[in-house]
Amino acid sequence: MRIVRHGCSKMAETVLVPLLVLLFSSSAVCKLDKNADTHGTLQLISENQFAEPGHKFWIGLRFTLEKGWHIYWLNPGDSGEPPKVNWELPAGFRAGELQWPAPHRLEHPPLTDFGYEDEVLLLAQVNPAAGLATGGGNTVLAADVEWVVCREVCIASHKRVTLPLAIERGAPKVDPNWRVLFERTRAQLPKPAPLNWKSTVLTEEKDFVLSIETGASEANATFFPLEELQIEDAAPQRASSTRRGVRLTLEKSDQLLKPIKNLKGVIVLGNNRAYLIDAPVFHNKRGTSS
């Protein structure tokens, strides 16, 4: 059950703490901290050492967090808020949507959040226009970022980060400082499920039963829903291997008020293989609603 969001509003200098938070949440205090690098740091970095007109390249928001602190995935789970970014790019540059690595389950009984600890890079692909002039010195890419970092308390942070970058023509040169981080992060991005996979959901009275056929028996699986208030985030996910895949029993959220047609999310299989799935929901005769 989603009890309360313990994310902070950037507009609030102080936040009243609801009784439910005090009773149930491990993150019982929420505040705005004007020191954006408290409990971690944020950098804007580029995979390439310069931008080449007409050629896309990757940039990223690199969060490095103190031990025990975490930030949130796009669906934060039982509490929190995902990072939000407002790009401030030079004329002729366009940024794509943020790309989110597969998250982790962060257990803080009785709540479970979806997010990241230690270090995470949120990627975006930038497209410089083909007609950009070169040789004029560095241009500056910038991002206005808001995020919530939590441990026993939650802190809403805000920072404007900048990235000076030259515009040049020629073969892209990868920055050796960030090569491994960008490669590792791309490997952690959920991939579209292969076309030969079959994903379906059977809805029962209290559960969704998600079946995924990958073509081989799968020993472990964890599901992260893209939409909130569909499953009980903190409930155990009961996985059982099948001959051609895996079956996962997911407890329905007690705040799910109407049937759903599809269950969308990220499935993480053994060895951290992450895939996007969009599974149609079918109704068990014994189940009265989804």
Protein model, in words:
There is one protein chain. The protein is mainly beta and 290 residues long. The chain has two domains: 19-188, Immunoglobulin-like (Sandwich), CATH 2.60.40.1250; 191-283, Immunoglobulin-like (Sandwich), CATH 2.60.40. Helix content is 6%, strand content 48%. The strands form four sheets. Strands 13, 14, 15, 16, 17, 18, 19 and 20 form an eight-stranded mixed sheet that branches. Strands 1, 3, 6, 11 and 12 form a five-stranded mixed sheet that branches. The chain is globular. The two termini are 16 Å apart.
Q: Report the count of strand segments.
A: 20
The radius of gyration over CA amounts to: 21 Å
Terminal residue distance = 16 Å
- CATH topology term of the largest domain: Immunoglobulin-like
Shape: globular
Structural class, from helix and strand content?
A: mainly beta
Identify the CATH architecture of the largest domain: Sandwich
Question: β content, as a range?
Answer: over 45%
CATH homologous superfamily caption of the largest domain: Thiol:disulfide interchange protein DsbD, N-terminal domain
Instruction: Determine the fraction of residues in helical runs and give it as a percent range.
Output: under 10%
Q: Which residue ranges are poorly predicted, with pLDDT under 50 across at least 5 consecutive positions?
A: 1-29
Instruction: State the helix count.
Output: 2
Largest pleated sheet: 8 strands, mixed
What is the CATH top level name of the largest domain? Answer: Mainly Beta
Order of helices and strands: HEEEEEEEEEEEEHEEEEEEEE
Number of structurally distinct domains: 2
